[in-house]
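Researcher: Checking consistency across runs. Here is Phosphoglucomutase-2 again:
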Amino acid sequence: MTGTGDDEVDGKLQEWMKIDRNESTRAEMQKLAENGNVDQLRKLLLKRMEFGTAGLRSGMGTGFSQMNDVTIIQTSQGLSKYLLKTCPDVKKRGVVIGYDGRHNSHRFASLAARVLINDEIPVYLFSTLCPTPYVPYSVLHYKTECGIMVTASHNPKNDNGYKVYWGNGAQIISPIDKGIAESILQNLEIQDSSWDHATIRSSPLCKDPLNTILEAYNNDLCSLCYFKEKNQSSPVKFTYTGMHGVGYEYVKKACQSFGFVEPIPVKEQVEPDPEFPTVKYPNPEEGEGALLLAMKTADENNSNVILANDPDADRLAVAEKLTNGHWHIFSGNEIGALLGWWSWFSFVQRYPDYPVGELYMLASTVSSKILLTIGNKEGFQFEETLTGFKWMGNLATTLQKQGKKVLFAFEEAIGFMCGTNVLDKDGISAAMVLSELATYLYGSNTTLHNKLDEIYKTYGYHLSSNSYFICHEQDKIKKMFEEIRNYNNSGKYPEACGPYKIKYIRDLTVGYDNSKPDCKPVLPVSKSSQMITFTFENGCVATLRTSGTEPKIKYYTEVKPDPQKGLDRQGAQKELDDIVQCIIKYFYQPEKFGFTPRST
């Protein structure tokens, strides 16, 4: 192969062409080299994807910085060697592997299985695509040491990912992620046999968990069902979309556990399709743009409630048709309030003598504090974690070991964990629990929207405004946060944002929190991500953070109106909207940095 004239690039180029046996990615690399595209080759060859607590998630294509056969094999080799080193029973207990309907997901899962089997580690490899929640469920069911899910969740179609669960059924956290990352770098040399993934099904170490898990998952799902007889004659007609993902067949099975008839499918979106042809982004969180076909189907079938899973069915979006004919798409915080209230209400209905102080609900730090408010009144406990279900899943295992019961956990990005059968967000169980709640409410001549308003009137309104900007350049994002830490070259954090004075600042990137006597935050610090929280003197709390899986700079704001301070709900909402605009103007500075606002 002709060299590029860049010795560093040429060395890595030769290395790649020596180890890659996939004709597609070899040809892609060859073409870049022939065209002399040195800048692109540097991006693809000189920087590896970083393995972290989210595992891997990236675009698919050639090179060490993307998802492909080479990087999947190398990652699996590192994981396998780490398991052999740290888990003495891994050759007995094994590993679960699942995959979604994206391009290459089945292939990547098969390659991972081959690597593990080569190391004499048994594998439970699903024989067909499955929802992400089935993998952590299977880890607990089979008591395996680890679980791997090949998915990029709701990311664009060119992305894929490699998500890792540990033996406790929760996503990995530090120091496990760091140990795996180091092991990957120590085990980059690919064995010839690692490419032979076509024959793994014939290996005695490869088993298919599908039928066993399908039955067990849906049997355990019944523990979340409280009014099955009423569900069988539900007054609600549900419309369902799987967003071109895996959810539909599994939701139909779950409906049987709860006694529901099958939901009305959005026919254009219920079959798996890795091209996601009807949506710009396969993400039901993106609002009306993602749910247009669902609304059309629901309107045509006189259906009042829409349930939407993302492509790997671990998240749930909900919409309801109001009396004025308009659709209300519930935010993640609103669904969290509804499901949190219902989890509490239905549990105490069945177990009135259960010690209330032993019950827990969890939410991430950027999510609404409505569960804290409800808990303060009703007596159950509330715990806040860092962003991401890896933290809530691991905290739930800790609480269970202490004899506590976790009823519910959620994050505002439409992720919900009902019970602890799955120690991760689960869009299928959440869809069933939400359906039972809706059935109960409609049977009582009320609606989800009305119930939400009743919850807020009972416990206090929690108003929020969340969104994001898009930026693919990490240097610009870093500079934005550095300017906040050195506001107006003062060497200090800002004391105000426009006219709104700031009372406290918590920076979980550098480890600073001036609301604490020693200025050290309670939540863990992570230098690898940006996250600053502002508590304003008027009570508004705003968090700015980067996403671990997408090129987004997110903001989350919430205020709880205090009538004693003269602000009703409308006044508080107006003030919150103004604070958001000030945050964008003074902190984000999108024109200066070239950030792209969210579009729906």
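Researcher: Does this match what you'd expect to see?
Model: One thing to look at in this run: DSSP finds 20 helices and 23 strands in the chain.
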